[in-house]
Design goal:
Elements (H helix, E strand, L loop, with lengths): L2 H5 L19 E6 L2 H11 L3 E8 L4 E7 L10 H8 L5 E7 L22 E5 L3 H10 L3 E4 L10 E4 L5 E5 L5
Parallel strand pairs: 1-4, 5-8
Antiparallel strand pairs: 2-3, 3-4, 6-7, 7-8
Length: 173
């Protein structure tokens, strides 16, 4: 579809209100069972950097904010980092409810079984073949490999809570 056709899709506001011009889609939140496993997956496997951690001991949960950014760009000062973090797109917030990691039967719904809801997050990589080979070598669980199905240009891996992470490459294979 052309941009003109996209602007004419029923329900679409072709010209957003100028009051929204500087809005930034900042973050998505996922609840995770075992924060150590999740932090390992998102930092070691996918390359995210931990930007901030907020603890709420009275409510028994903690928040972890991560992003795919050059670590050199992350402000060292806590207050400056918080302001900076709230101004950039693409933050992943992991919410850990304390104690869930100790309950063998506990699991969050990943949204991809009935009743369906949340589907996945997506990471763009420069070389999808190399990325998938690396994920395979790291023992990452796949929902869909590049060779599976008809869509050979994308893959889905699963994080420790079985949330799907779509892997795409911006340029054609």
């Amino acid at each position: 579809m052309s941009l003109q056709e996209l602007n004419n899709v029923p329900g679409v506001t072709a010209q957003p209100d100028s009051a929204t011009q500087q809005f930034v889609f900042n973050h998505t939140m996922l609840r995770v069972k075992d924060i150590q496993k999740s932090l390992d997956f998102y930092t070691r496997v996918l390359g995210f950097s931990l930007l901030e951690k907020r603890d709420f001991p009275e409510a028994e949960f903690s928040l972890y904010f991560l992003a795919l950014v050059d670590k050199a760009l992350i402000p060292a000062d806590d207050a400056a980092r918080t302001v900076w973090m709230k101004s950039i797109p693409g933050i992943l917030e992991l919410t850990h409810n304390h104690g869930t990691e100790n309950d063998a039967d506990f699991a969050y719904h990943n949204g991809n079984t009935d009743p369906r809801g949340f589907g996945h997050i997506c990471i763009a990589v420069p070389d999808i073949v190399a990325a998938c080979e690396r994920f395979e070598a790291l023992g990452v669980d796949f929902q869909k490999r590049l060779t599976d199905g008809r869509m050979k240009s994308l893959a889905f891996i699963k994080d420790p809570d079985a949330y799907w992470v779509e892997i795409i490459q911006p340029t054609p294979l």
